[in-house]
Write a structure and sequence with these properties.
Blueprint: E1 30-32, E2 42-44, H1 50-58, E3 90-94, E4 97-100, H2 101-114, H3 122-148, H4 155-173, H5 177-183, H6 188-208, H7 213-222, E5 228-238, H8 249-267, H9 272-279, E6 290-294, H10 301-309, E7 320-321, E8 325-336, H11 339-365, E9 368-370
Antiparallel strand pairs: 1-2, 3-4, 3-9, 5-6, 5-8, 7-8
Helix pairs in contact: 1-2, 1-4, 3-6, 4-6, 7-11
């Protein structure tokens, strides 16, 4: 398939290039559950292609991707996932400039090849497309603003980033820099020109979204309740079987009566830790039901609401139900996380908020519009 030419008028500036991609990596995801039955499940992505995608795709919304064309090696096997893009179709507009289907194709096809063994769903493709379009838009508007303020980077900084990129490619794809450039018909100058635009955009964004320690501390003081942590112990009577399925309604009723009897003992003043060790079906039973300190958003909603509402030393006056079963809760302590303990995460969060607001305001300033077909719509 040969490359179709783009009209030059009113499209984002992109150097012309052509190439093939022949790198295949597998995605691996790993879901880990906390040991405790009341803690929310956390999903951690361990993606083997992440370095390759970041190195080859994300830098400059594919700093190498001015043109991947698959005509040089016509016999190459196509990836499991591919998609045809109408080269002249308007994907988005930034003022009077256009992002075309051809420009999007150039950035999407390397992703298909990096995930060559995986068949992507339509939703996954749309998600990749949406992220790629947002990257292209953000890069353009930020670099335009940076140019107005004469923000630049040094040649040494550019060289360092380029060398890091080449090292990542060598690690991810098993190619030397020379082999990579030859394989994909690229030049060092071509890559650096595109990287420079992205790095300037990033520098502008960072300079405009700095958060001082004082700003972070002021936010902390105004929202201190968000940093309250409680320590609680609990007794769990499970209403799910070993496969995680809910037991029958009659069995559940029996279990509820059992839990209510234990609740009476706890409210009567019997040692809570002893009761937990004897009756609780949670892994925390060995430690007397102690869950340690936790903040908001770390436990399932019903459990969290009940635990935070209790006074120190108080036992819940009724059973608390969750998907796991019936809980009897005792609040043993509470404290506020110190500012120094949350400062790093807070600065990061406030920085992200500033960046998102800046980008949103610039999108309005530059009259950014994404074609309906390429907008990510929330699932009903």
């Amino acid at each position: 398939m040969s490359e179709e030419k783009n009209p030059k008028e009113n499209t984002l500036d992109e150097p012309k290039n052509s190439d093939n991609v022949n790198s295949k990596k597998d995605d691996v995801s790993d879901e880990k559950n906390t040991d405790n039955k009341v803690k929310k499940r956390e999903i951690k992505l361990n993606n083997k292609t992440l370095k390759a995608i970041v190195a080859i795709v994300a830098v400059g919304a594919i700093c190498l991707g001015g043109g991947y064309v698959f005509g040089k090696e016509a016999g190459r096997k196509l990836p499991a996932t591919s998609k045809h893009y109408n080269s002249s179709e308007v994907v988005a507009t930034i003022g009077d400039k256009k992002i075309t289907g051809e420009m999007l194709r150039k950035r999407m096809e390397p992703l298909f090849y990096l995930n060559a063994k995986t068949t992507m769903t339509d939703d996954e493709i749309r998600s990749y497309e949406s992220n790629m379009i947002e990257t292209m838009i953000t890069s353009d508007i930020l670099s335009s603003e940076a140019a107005k303020e004469k923000i630049s980077i040094t040649n040494d900084q550019l060289d360092a980033q380029y060398n890091n990129l080449m090292s990542s490619i060598e690690s991810a794809m098993g190619m030397t820099k020379e082999e990579f450039l030859k394989q994909f018909d690229l030049t060092e100058k071509y890559i650096k020109d595109d990287m420079k635009k992205e790095l300037v955009a990033s520098k502008y964004l960072n300079e405009k979204s700095k958060v001082t320690d004082k700003e972070a501390e002021n936010y902390y003081n105004k929202n201190k309740s968000n940093y309250l942590q409680v320590r609680a112990s609990h007794i769990l009577i499970k209403t799910v079987d070993d496969k995680g399925k809910q037991v029958s309604s009659s069995k559940k009723a029996e279990l509820k009566k059992e839990a209510e009897e234990i609740l009476k003992k706890a409210q009567a003043g019997e040692d809570f830790a002893t009761l937990a060790k004897k009756y609780s079906e949670d892994s925390s039973a060995e430690s007397g039901g102690d869950l340690g300190f936790f903040g908001k958003g770390q436990m399932v909603e019903s459990f969290e609401k009940a635990a935070f509402a209790l006074k120190k030393g108080e036992v819940s006056n009724k059973l608390v139900e969750s998907d796991y079963g019936y809980h009897i809760i005792k609040k043993t302590d509470e404290k506020y996380q110190p500012f120094e303990e949350v400062k790093s995460d807070l600065v990061s969060s406030l920085t992200s908020e500033k960046q998102n607001l800046l980008i949103q305001n610039l999108k309005e300033k530059y009259n950014v519009k994404i074609t309906d077909k390429y907008q990510m719509k929330a699932k009903e």
